[in-house]
Amino acid sequence: MVMFTEQLTQIIRSRRSTKPRLFNGQKIKDEIIWKILENANWAPNHGLTQPWRYKVFADSGLQKLANFQADLYQKLTPSDKFQPEKCDRLKSNVLKSSHVIVICMQRQTTEKIPEIEEVEAVACSVQNMALTAAAYEICSFWGSGGITYTEELKSFLGLAEKDKCLGYLYLGYSDNPCTKSHRQPIKDKVEWFD
Fold first, then answer.
1. CA-angle at 152, arms to 147 and 156, nearest 5°
2. Residue range 61-85, pLDDT digits in tens
3. How do residues 104-148 score in pLDDT, each as one tens digit?
4. What is the pTM of this model?
5. How many other C-beta atoms can be found within 10 angstroms of the C-beta atom of residue 104?
6. 130 in a domain, yes or no?
7. How far apart are the first and last CA of the chain?
């Protein structure tokens, strides 16, 4: 048990976000993606609502997603604020990835569980994916910029009115993955009451 605990601690502390622009285009086997998704499915969630929904883009689906993102950015952005490099990045980040998992939250029909708890459950699910990817030495990056919170993206993804898109999990391999990070001491962030 001690060895497992040490391995888990190592995975948690060594996991890093690597931006998709650093990915090398090498493909991840689909069976590994399914293992990542299966571990996502075991996240804690209030009332067992299991609100996470994932849209996986791979192969030609990546081009479809890249084109949609870039086209929508161009359509929604006023000409005086349009940044060609941002438009290019919206395409290239997707196309450098092996797989892009679009992170969605399906709102409980009865709305008995507060929405924030559903969002938190999805976040736990994404952490499970990021840790599983790290265990397989796969780079990941949870991005939520660009067009993430638009109604147009919800429509593209086929989400219901009260569902939400919470970003993209880009997955890939990198020749130069991010390896360094730091945290302030946990004691600076904790109040302990006896």
1. 105
2. 999 999 999 999 999 999 999 999 9
3. 999 999 999 999 999 999 999 999 999 999 999 999 999 997 789
4. 0.93
5. 22
6. yes
7. 29
Angle at 190 between CA 185 and CA 51, to 5 degrees: 100
What DSSP state is assigned to residue 35?
A: H
- DSSP string across 92-120: HHHHH-SEEEEEEEPPPTT--S-HHHHHH
Contact assessment for residue 93 and residue 22, using Cβ atoms and an 8 Å cutoff? no
Q: How far is CA 54 from CA 45, 96, 106, 120, 130, in A?
A: 16, 20, 10, 15, 14
The verdict on residue 118 lying in a domain is: yes
Tell me, yes or no, whether 6 lies in a domain.
Answer: no
Strand-pairing partners, residue 143, are: 168
Identify residue 174 by its one-letter amino acid code.
S
Residue 127 lies in a domain: yes
The CATH number covering residue 81 comes to: 3.40.109.10
Overall number of domains in the chain: 1
Residues 69 and 145: beta-carbon distance below 8 Å: no
Q: Assign residue 193 a region: left if phi > 0, alpha if psi is -120 to 50, beta otherwise?
A: beta
The pLDDT tens digits for 3-55 are 789 999 999 999 999 999 999 999 999 999 999 999 999 999 999 999 999 99
Rounded Cα distance between 188 and 11, Å, is 23
Measured distance CA(171)–CA(35) in Å, rounded: 13
